[in-house]
Amino acid sequence: MMEPSNEAELADAIRDASGPLRIRGGGTRPIGVAGAGEVLSTTALSGVTLYEPGALTIVVKAGTPLAEVQATLAAENQRLPFEPMDHRSVMGSAGEPTIGGVVAANVSGPRRIQAGACRDALIGVRFVDGSGTALKNGGRVMKNVTGYDLVKLMAGCYGTLGVLSEVSFKLLPGIAAKATLSIKDQGAAEAVATMSRALGSPFEVSGAAHLRGETLIRIEGLSDSVAYRSEQLAALLGDAATIERDPDVVAQTWEAIGNVAAFAGSDRDVWRMSVKPSDAPVLIDALPGAETMMDWGGGLVWASCAPGTDLRAVAPGIAGHRTLVRASEATKQTLGVFQPEPAPIEALNVALRAKFDPRGILNPGLMG
Fold it and tell me: Domain limits at 198?
């Protein structure tokens, strides 16, 4: 296993590689088809390069543990906007999540409906492409992009276009208070209607999920504001809504939702499906023997099903993306992990990989 400790060593390792490389951060997100090749670990590329609390920006090396980044920000009462998911519970994996892994997989949590995805908070990247060339795009402030936006391109490419060495983020202030509204005994269609009503209200909802018959709505902000908005939203949603105000309970509830903890410790396959919220109830009703959870107001559906079940074959008329997150290697090989792209998009992806990784050595075959 190669463990470069700086960007120059990373560039040398990639430039001198004679065969495929398997790019690894903390190893907590083994999504994709496992491929052959020598492991190239980024964990030695660690540390905060620059942190400016007054400017709400941070620059950090890609192998830095996510927990270290979050602790640094918490000390200044600040946070990453997108509430990154920890895959360890649902994947049954070990290791320590890294900030580069978060970016490479564009990992975002329940707060995405309010604050956007990881790529929306990402303002700069440094990375090494498949030829061993170090590249930089973006910077330490938000600005209009001229030329190709490599910052957005690197978020979600799973290391197939380049290996991240450094990332920069815009930040948000910490959260003073939070509350969860709960409505029990709702089916999928009723839950989507409730979540849509809450999200369409003026009460600034930061989370909207549904699991095991319970619809959950989160409100965050200053203490008096949260108290007022939660009461007003409860009145809007009806007498069945109850309010949980204990900050620890609220935090634990949404951490479990974001990490899909309900599907942990099982040998069933897990799928992640992005759809229009209005299509979510139709999709859920069509899933054979699956347990489901909705997040992002119904725009994200998680499903746990019998091993080997092809959920892409179910309700094929519903548009969206269906990703096989947890399954055996045999099932991944048979069904594929990522949603097949339309021919024009696939042609674009092939061209991008040929440009950024002309030798085809960065995680080959991982994304199909």
Answer: 177-258
Q: Does 244 share its domain with 267?
A: no
Phi-psi sector, 221: left (phi>0), alpha (psi -120 to 50), beta:
left
* Angstrom distance (rounded) from CA 346 to CA 341: 6
How far apart are alpha carbons 212 and 108 in whole angstroms? 22
Q: What is the pLDDT along the chain (368 residues), one digit of tens a residue?
A: 999 999 999 999 999 999 999 999 999 999 888 778 999 999 999 999 999 999 999 999 999 999 999 999 999 999 999 999 999 999 999 999 999 999 999 999 999 999 999 999 999 999 999 999 999 998 665 444 445 688 999 999 999 999 999 999 999 999 999 999 999 999 999 999 999 999 999 999 999 999 999 999 999 999 999 999 999 999 999 878 999 999 999 999 999 999 999 999 999 999 999 999 999 999 999 998 899 999 999 999 999 999 999 999 999 999 999 999 999 999 999 999 999 999 999 999 999 999 999 999 999 988 86
Rounded to 5 degrees, what are φ and ψ at 173?
Answer: -65, 160
Residue-wise burial string across 284-293, b where 16 or more C-beta atoms lie within 10 A, e elsewhere: beebeebbbb
Provide the CATH number for the domain around residue 236: 3.30.70
65 plus 189 within the same structural domain: no
Strand 78-79 and strand 48-52: pairing? unpaired
Of 173, 257, 187, 184, the residue nearest 218 (C-alpha): 257
